[in-house]
Amino acid sequence: MNSTHQASLGSICFYGAGSMAEAIVRGLIHKSVAAPKQISMLNRSNQERLTYLTQQYGVLTGNSEQDKNKYLTEASIIVLAMKPKDAKEALTELGPKLQEGQLIVSLIAGISISTLQQLLGTNAPIARSMPNTSSSIGLGATGLSFSEETTDDHVQQVLSMFQSVGIVSVIPEEQMDILTGVSGSGPAYIYYMIEAMIEAGIEGGLTPDQARNLTVQTVLGAASMMLETGEDPAKLRKDITSPNGSTQAALEVLADKDFTNTVKAAVHRCKERSFEMGQAVKEAL
Question: Which residues form the Pyrroline-5-carboxylate reductase dimerisation domain (predicted)?
């Protein structure tokens, strides 16, 4: 990514320094979309965590009131990366500090743009996002929705941020909870299946390294096959399922356990939980 993208982003303050914030910071730096000196990260009290982030990425960090005031007021973009339960206190405090022209990017699951503006006490321009942790290696999938206060420049800044770490889907805000269920939390479902396949391989006599490498390559190959061929996953599955063969036997076990409906139920429960978390914050106002 060239320097014009870096200049257009200005300074970015991550208000919250957890795993998702780190994933995006790692991706931004790795793809040269933002230099470490452009990025600051804040948390409430975990100095050990901030020290690690500074040493690992070279970003600015702080947790004192002085640091918080400096980084938040000077940032062009403020990324809300705190947990939903901490949002009310943090955003109520942040509102009076906002400067004209500052853009808010929210990573907080479940909390709507209108609720964010209510907590901030102002109709600030807001981009609501739902990335996933694969952003840290440039293979993320992020959903974005924008408030009516955002300008074309704001939209381009946010697209630049998240396109640098993966693909982006701009969606109506009412679809954000289902997107959370599909791609926001989706990597965890895949890892869960990978864990089970590795365990089965070890139980069958493979070494842990063999089971891991074979499973990871299998998942990578399957995903790449879909991307490169454009084929429907059902067709690709049928192509390798011979009648009365070993693959069919395995799939019958999954079907007997209601695999499809179980996965769908997990996605929809994630959607529901995302909505519930947002409602809890809204009702506490």
Answer: 173-277
In the chain the first and final C-alpha atoms are separated, in Å, by 41
CATH 1.10.3730.10 location in the chain = 186-270
CA dihedral 117, 122, 125, 131 (to 10 degrees): -30
Q: 81 among the known binding-site residues?
A: yes
What are the backbone dihedrals phi and psi of residue 52, each rounded to the nearest 5 degrees, phi first? -60, -45
**Mean pLDDT per 10-residue interval, the chain, length 285 residues:** 49 94 88 92 93 97 93 96 89 93 93 94 96 89 97 93 93 96 97 98 98 98 97 97 97 98 98 90 79
Compute how many other C-beta atoms are within 10 angstroms of the C-beta atom of residue 89. Answer: 12
Q: Locate CATH 3.40.50.720 in the chain.
A: 3-176
37 known ligand binder: no
- 82 marked as part of a ligand binding site: yes
This model's pTM is above 0.85: yes
DSSP of 12-31: EEEE--SHHHHHHHHHHHHT
Q: Who contacts 65 (Cβ-Cβ below 8 Å, separation ≥6)?
A: none
Q: Which fold has domain 3-176?
A: Rossmann fold (3.40.50)
CATH topology of domain 186-270: ProC C-terminal domain-like fold (1.10.3730)
Handedness of CA 152, 154, 155, 156 (dihedral sign): positive
**Beta-carbon count within 10 A of 130 CB:** 27
Asked if residue 8 lies in contact with residue 158, where contact means CB atoms within 8 angstroms, the answer is: no
